[in-house]
Every structure is written in structure tokens, then in C-alpha cells.
Design a protein that fits this description.
It is a single chain. The protein is an alpha+beta fold and 127 residues long. The chain is 19% helix and 35% strand. It has one domain: OB fold (Dihydrolipoamide Acetyltransferase, E2P), CATH 2.40.50.100. The protein has a 6-stranded antiparallel sheet. It has a 3-stranded antiparallel sheet with strand order 4-6-7.
């Protein structure tokens, strides 16, 4: 299971990478492996301001459909349009080309509530 040290994670298996006031959100390697082959990604919240914990979209896999949740509050400024043609990027490269949305942070202090890589690893092992 690939868990990157430079990211923060949620218990719902989203990750967030922060650079200044911007952040990228995706799903973890664990999440994509549990979902199986991902066939569709839907994000209709571009341009919206969402609170921490709100659904920003959904992912459809052969086995299931899952919501994607905001790890922190922010404005959705960009959807990764590569996922329209290649939703399997979430399976192949969940931390790179498989990012889902880019946001502008509203309340950076919410990052303190997220899991670091070691805490996320321990959380997965407890499941």
C-alpha cells in the first residue's frame, strides 16, 4: 500500500496536498484498491465553495459508487478533466495524474484535524 509522507489524509480515504493557499484532493491508493476498476468520475461542484465533510462528487467503479468528501473547506477551482476520458488514472496513479480537484483553502487550520502518513497507515491497519 502506497502512502506518501507529504500528504494529509482523511478517514474516508481522501488525500490533500497543500501548496500555499492552493490544494489538490484525490483518493488514496488504499481507496482505489478497495473500489476496483474505476469507470467514471463525476464532479459538478467546480466554482462552488464547500465545507469540510461535504460531498464534492462521486466515483463509480465496477463494484460500487462512492462519494468524495472535502477534507477541508474550500472553493473548487479546477476539476481534473483528464479523468473524463481516463477515469482509470485513479487506479494507475492516485497521487499524481489521478488528482480529482484543485481547491483554494478557506480555513487552513482545518488541516490540523487530518491524519499524517503514519497515522493514516495505522488507521488502515486497524480496519
Amino acid at each position: 500500500m502506497n502512502i506518501l509522507d507529504n500528504l494529509k489524509y482523511t478517514r474516508d480515504h481522501e488525500w490533500i496536498k497543500v501548496e500555499g493557499n492552493s490544494a489538490w484532493i484525490g483518493i488514496s491508493d488504499y481507496a482505489q484498491s478497495q473500489m476496483g476498476d474505476i469507470v467514471y468520475v463525476e464532479v459538478e461542484t467546480e466554482g462552488e465553495i464547500l465545507n469540510k465533510g461535504e460531498s464534492l462528487g462521486s466515483i463509480e467503479a465496477v463494484k460500487t459508487v462512492e462519494d468524495i468528501y472535502m477534507p477541508v473547506s474550500g472553493e473548487i477551482v479546477e476539476f481534473n478533466e483528464k479523468l473524463i476520458e481516463k477515469p482509470d488514472l485513479l487506479n494507475k496513479d492516485p497521487y499524481g495524474e489521478g488528482w480529482i480537484v484543485k481547491i483554494t483553502l478557506i480555513n487552513p487550520s482545518e488541516l490540523d484535524d487530518l491524519l499524517d502518513s503514519q497515522s493514516y497507515k495505522e488507521f488502515i491497519e486497524s480496519l
